[in-house]
Specification:
InterPro entries: MetI-like, MetI-like_sf. This protein folds into two domains: 1-50, no CATH class; 59-66 and 73-283, MetI-like fold. By secondary structure, it is mainly alpha-helical. A hairpin with a 2-residue loop joins strand 3 and strand 4 (147-148). The longest helix is centred in the C-terminal third of the chain and has 39 residues, at 193-231. It has ten helices and four strands. 71% of the residues lie in helices and 4% in strands. It has a two-stranded antiparallel sheet. Strands 3-4 form a two-stranded antiparallel ribbon. The chain has helices spanning 3-28, 53-60, 73-108, 110-123, 128-140, 151-175, 180-188, 193-231, 237-246, 253-279; strands spanning 34-36, 39-42, 143-144, 147-148.
Length: 290
């Protein structure tokens, strides 16, 4: 069986296994959950807290609300998921470009690495909930002709902020992984910096770059969904989850349908990164864990 088909089969098998575990726990778990003192160890299994999977899928075909012309939950979730997917992709691309530029700067100049790398690591300690209002405020002050900073750009900027870190650190490690003997060989042939980078350092970095791309993609998706809530942006899957959760009442399947949409966004992004990995597969030797 081809490698791609095997991976797809494993992915579907994992989803089916998760669905089976969901229904199994709902069937055998206590309605009030499992408690250890005041701490809830396992969740409740009542229909209000943990609806059946078939109830969730039935809800997809029903209108979002009782208003005239209301779209179905499926169409609303698909639309919101595509919006979040596009924003996360923009943030991921920006994070990849920024992280790659920083890695190239640090690998070519030791002083830059000593000056920049601590701040790159420190940047990830800033809470996202504190960063979102700042990005929105700074973005609203950007004026260049007819250009207007839109709210989705703030969300994409936050997603890129989370995505650049694994790229910069992983690519820097990969660029430095080229064997010293091969570097000496390139120097003996008077190969310039760009030739050494293209023919030696970048191929050596692929095994570190691919895990970094996966981590960055996951961070971009999570960052986009959380930033939608923090910035107040409407239309994305993050705000949809919040809105469906607030207005769910006796309709527990509705917020879970939105959560499944967010999971689908993550799976699509992971699949796209895997396609990039297939394109770079000829450079890959052994893959390092991120």
């Amino acid at each position: 069986m081809p490698v791609v088909a095997r991976r797809v089969l494993y992915a579907f098998g994992g989803i089916l296994l998760l669905a089976a575990l969901w229904e199994l726990y709902k069937a055998v778990g206590p309605a009030d959950g499992v408690h250890w003192g005041q701490t809830v160890v396992l969740p409740r299994t009542s229909d209000l807290a943990m609806p059946h999977l078939w109830s969730m899928f039935q809800r997809y075909g029903q209108p979002v609300d009782s208003s005239a012309g209301s779209p179905t939950v499926l169409s609303a979730v698909l639309r919101a998921s595509l919006i979040s997917l596009g924003i996360a992709a923009c943030g991921w691309a920006a994070g990849v470009i920024l992280g790659a530029l920083l890695a190239l700067l640090m690998v070519s100049w030791r002083l830059a690495e000593r000056a920049i790398l601590p701040f790159v690591i420190l940047s990830q300690t800033v809470p996202l909930i504190a960063l979102a209002p700042l990005v929105v405020t700074w973005g609203s002050q950007i004026h260049a002709g007819d250009f207007v900073w839109k709210q989705w750009m703030s969300v994409a900027a936050i997603a890129g902020y989370l995505a650049f870190f694994p790229i910069s650190v992983g690519l820097l490690r990969g660029l430095r992984s080229a064997p010293a003997t091969q570097l000496e060989l390139f120097r003996s042939f008077a190969a310039g910096w760009w030739r050494t980078l293209w023919h030696l350092r970048l191929p050596a970095a692929v095994t570190y770059l691919l895990p970094a791309l996966r981590v960055a993609a996951a961070a971009a998706v999570v960052g986009a969904i959380v930033a939608e809530v923090s910035t107040g942006m409407q239309g994305g899957i993050g705000r949809t989850i919040l809105a469906y959760g607030i207005a769910s009442g006796g309709d527990p399947a509705k917020p879970w349908d939105a959560i499944i949409g967010a999971v689908a966004v993550g799976l699509v992004v992971a699949g796209l990164v895997s396609l990039i990995g297939l394109g770079l597969g000829r450079f890959r030797r052994t893959e390092e864990s991120a």
